[in-house]
Design a protein that fits this description.
With 449 residues, this protein is of the alpha+beta class. It contains 16 helices and 11 strands.
Length: 449
């Protein structure tokens, strides 16, 4: 049985597609009752180039990078398509295993994987001291571009499983493993404009709009500037020529301003003192370097970002309500609060009753446009008749909303988007209070005192 990582608890069943990956063992010779191996499925650089050439030839979607191509290939409904994509894999660690598993170290584990015909990377080494670790890192950095797959660094692990157990975990990662990234890829471009984005907690985040530049195979047109202090520290201005890098080969950021190329008329960037969306005062509080809009629920940007968080994958996970749909439904007045999401199917049913479907279609379809039908008499066009929607997509959305009413307590708490309350804290609260009624009772008691 094979599954994706998903949200860490629930993933997608990919058993049939995993079976068609070459050299993945369909049977293993072991007496261990429960054995879960974890790894990564990838697409080689050569296969990625071949795939994109075929896609272009057939006038189909071009993939941005091998990672996206591998993920898309693995989720195909037709296993024949997956088989033709020539996916590969490495296994690198254990998941769940039964008590009869008696491997004692990471080195022994790799040897055991090999004996079961699993594929592991040959680029590993058991190091005896820090000098050997650094020597291996430098070697990896030299040869990384000659590998037929993308890597962004190394992972160091304590070899002994007994020592791993004693070291334990913190919230997001084990204490016995450490990632060491390679220096990020860089490129030079111009900052055309600095804009401000407002987050769900009111944070004003400056973003540099760039003259698009290719960094490591990805076209980058935006880069985060983090906050006001970062802009002032690096003296970043509109019109500056800058060095851009992708932190962890993912997030674009400004590494350096090329002061010698700055134009004489250049002026320092003035950070706004008011929210660019609602006009409320923007302030920092205490030792927090982040400047925030004080508008709260009166700020449309905070409301919209809060709604996006509420329906996101790690929260209510409502399929069909992506960022663009939330923005559109907010502008149309369909969804202004969390409650509106769950009232949406019933409201749409009532809205549809006010329409004559045949009149609406004649009014919307260009080839059959009827000038005698005035759509201004209608309060709003039902979702199923709106551009980009149809009966199937609308019904699927309403079904997803209905199914989302059953949710675990930790996901519900996390979905509320309370500042300082992330996934791990939500899990702790859920374990401690067990039910929403218990939690609300404690909150009410706290408010009284």
């Amino acid at each position: 049985q094979g599954a994706t990582r998903g949200d860490g608890q629930i993933g997608e069943d990919i058993t049939e597609n995993q079976k068609v990956i070459k050299n993945f063992p369909s049977k293993i010779d072991t007496n261990i009752k429960i054995l879960e191996v974890r790894g990564e499925i990838y697409m080689s650089k050569a296969d990625f180039e071949t795939l994109n050439q075929e896609q272009e030839k057939n006038k189909e979607k071009i993939f941005a990078n091998p990672r996206n191509a591998a993920a898309g290939s693995l989720r195909q409904l037709d296993t024949k398509i997956t088989a033709n994509r020539n996916l590969k894999y490495f296994v690198y660690t254990l998941g769940e295993n039964s008590d009869d598993f008696n491997i004692q170290s990471q080195k022994e584990l790799f040897d055991y994987f090999k004996s079961l015909n699993f594929s592991i990377t040959d680029f590993t080494k058991l190091c005896k001291n820090l000098d050997e670790v650094i020597e291996f890192y430098n070697k990896a950095q030299e040869i990384r571009h000659s590998l037929d797959y993308d890597v962004d660094g190394l992972v160091y692990k304590v070899n002994s499983f007994e020592l791993q157990k004693r070291l334990g975990f913190v919230t997001h990662h084990p204490r016995w493993a450490l990632a060491h990234k390679f220096p990020p890829k860089q490129a030079i471009t111009e900052i055309k404009q600095i804009i401000i984005q407002v987050g769900r907690t009111g944070s004003l985040t400056p973003v540099a709009k760039l003259d698009p530049v290719n960094i490591g195979g990805a076209l980058v047109s935006n880069a985060t500037l983090h906050n006001k202090d970062e802009i002032e520290r690096k003296d970043i201005r509109e019109g500056d020529i800058v060095v851009i890098q992708r932190a962890g080969d993912v997030i674009p950021q400004v590494a350096k301003v090329l002061i010698e190329k700055r134009k004489p008329e250049s002026k320092p960037y003035i950070f706004p003192t008011k929210c660019p969306i609602c006009g409320s005062p923007a302030e920092s509080f205490g030792e927090d370097v982040v400047i925030r809009c004080t508008g709260g629920i009166n700020c449309p940007a905070q409301v919209v970002e809060g709604l996006k968080h509420f329906v996101s994958k790690d929260a209510f996970d409502i399929e069909g309500l992506g960022d663009k749909q939330i923005e559109r439904f907010y502008e149309e007045g369909r969804i202004k609060s969390f409650i509106d999401i769950f009232n949406l199917p019933e409201k749409e049913k009532e809205l549809e009753k006010t329409y004559k479907k045949e009149d609406l279609l004649f009014a919307l379809i260009p080839e059959t446009k009827n000038p005698n039908i005035d759509l201004t008499n209608y309060p709003a066009i039902p979702i199923r008749y709106s551009e980009g929607w149809g009966d199937k997509s609308a019904n699927n959305l309403f079904k997803a909303i209905e199914e989302a009413k059953n949710i675990s307590l930790e996901k519900f708490i996390y979905a509320l988007g309370i500042r300082f309350l992330g996934e791990s804290t939500a899990i702790l609260l859920a374990k401690n209070y067990n039910s929403i009624d218990n939690l609300l009772m404690k909150i009410q008691e706290a408010c009284k005192t």
